[in-house]
Amino acid sequence: MQAVIKTAPTIEPISLADLKMHLRLDSETLDGNLALTQSLAYGSHGISAGGLYTHTGTGVDVLGKQAEVLVHHGTNGATGTVDTKIQEADALAGPYTDWTGGAFTQVTTDGAGATEPDNADYKKQYTGSKQYIRTASKVLLAACEFGTSILVNAATVAEDDLLTAIIQASREYVENYTRRALLTQTWYLYLDAFPDCDYIKLPWGNLQSVTSVKYKDYEGTETTMTVTDEYLVETNGEGVGRIVLPYGVTWPTFTAYPSNPITIEYVCGWTAAALVPEAIRAACKLVCADLWTNREGQSVGSAQIYFENPVVQRLLYSHRLWDEF
Q1: Residue partners of 21: CB distance under 8 A and separation at least 6
Q2: Using CA of residue 28, residue 19, residue 288, residue 159, what is the dihedral sign?
Q3: C-alpha dihedral (77, 78, 83, 84), degrees to nearest 10
Q4: What is the model's pLDDT at position 297?
Q5: Are 14 and 284 in contact (CB under 8 A)?
Q6: DSSP line for 84-141
Q7: What is the spatial distance between Cα 88 and Cα 134, in angstroms, rounded to a whole number?
Q8: Whether the Cβ atoms of residue 178 and residue 5 lie closer than 8 Å to each other
Q9: How far apart are CA 31 and CA 99, in angstroms?
Q10: Of 13, 18, 175, 322, which residue has the fewest beta carbons closer than 10 angstroms?
Q11: Is the separation of the CB atoms in 243 and 199 below 8 Å?
């Protein structure tokens, strides 16, 4: 049995902003910490064509930083309404999609009903995971005066690359210790033969899905097994996932290819950083703090070395997978 990663996680259990707060890294001045960038220029914006969100702002890089989106409202035209939402993207040029939870309450002239009044400012914190965000607004019935900007807490950016590498290293250490995948990643499991029992355990826990089960005969001809008919998938929550034979079904009989004849591709890990247990996230922060403090090297006899730190071990112990693979 051999497990090989195909696709590594695209997010980490703790963000750059989380780590900076934990390490208390700060440029020590409010002005030095905050960067305010205009997204949509303030002015009178006309009625949106087709009732769509046609007033779109410029994207702002917020990766690894805390960010708030500000909407500055002047006077709405008589009966005019403004709806604004936050959009996110992986690249500055897009494509942008609506961020869940990023819709501002509609602004009207009197703020009656389920609306907010004009001539006021409104804000909403962005807590998503994309690199770029912008605003998109819709104006109906009459032209309205408003603009948007994005406030970013950009404290101490000089060593962001090092901190990002430390976050990844801490996640990899915790994964090795707990023997589980923390966040969404794709793996190949290679087998030399099908087992004698009626199931196959899939390493790393938190099984999301099985993409395929394939076997290759001695001539190199590959066959893909059919889910439900030839095998079942047990995700088993945070535990160890399994591939199980249906009742009355046996594993295929074939003359195996000499190298990795059986390949199982599957996806595992929690789907979002917020779902990772707090004990694991806390352990990641402790590992990061040690790697940051002792970046020039560590003494093997030091009790502060993260893989000997009893606090880290206690935090992770109950989340460790003990199954044999």
Answers
A1: none
A2: negative
A3: 20
A4: 63
A5: yes
A6: EEEEEESSTT---EEEEEEEPPPEESS--SS-EESSSEEEEEE----SEEEEEEEEES
A7: 7
A8: no
A9: 28
A10: 322
A11: yes
Question: Out of 2.60.120, 3.40.50, 2.70.98, 2.40.128, which CATH number does the structure's domain 27-153 have?
Answer: 2.60.120
DSSP 231: B
DSSP code at position 52: S
Residue with tokens 């002239």: 109
Q: Where in the chain is the domain with CATH 2.60.120?
A: 27-153
Rounded CA-CA distance 215/259 in Å is: 11
Q: What is the pLDDT of residues 258-278, one digit of tens each?
A: 999 999 999 999 999 999 999
Distance from the Cα of residue 282 to its chain's centroid: 17
Q: Residue with structure tokens 């998503």?
A: 128
How many of the other CB atoms lie within 10 Å of CB of 100?
9
Tokens linked to 271: 């789907």
Name the residue among 300, 279, 322, 302 with its Cα closest to residue 174: 279
- pLDDT of 307 > 60? The answer is no
Count of C-beta atoms within a 10 Å radius of residue 67: 23
d(CA 325, CA 321): 10
* Mean pLDDT, all residues of the chain: 91
- Per DSSP, the residues of 201-213 read EETBS-EEEEEEE
